[in-house]
Amino acid sequence: MISEKKPLKIRKRIGYQLLVKLTNFVDINYIKAFKDKLTNQIWTDLEQRQYIDKKYLFNCHNYFGKYHLINWQELNHHG
Fold first, then answer.
1. Count of domains in the chain?
2. 3-state secondary structure the chain
């Protein structure tokens, strides 16, 4: 679940730092999401805050200990 997003710019890459609450990985509090690595739909959902009150299965890439969002799958209300 995403509880907060903060704008992020590293070099010329635009993105967000997402404060997340993960079920199975309690040591991970933030994941980064970069526009150039996401589908247009996910990026639009992030920009328009369409993630509020939704749970996701996040697919991330571990980049030197920092997790970068690659894709997500919305879980149903029972997931």
1. 1
2. CEEEEEEEEECCEEEEEEEECCCCCCCCCEEEEEHHHCCHHHHHHHHCCCCCCCCEEEEEEEECCEEEEEEEEECCCCC
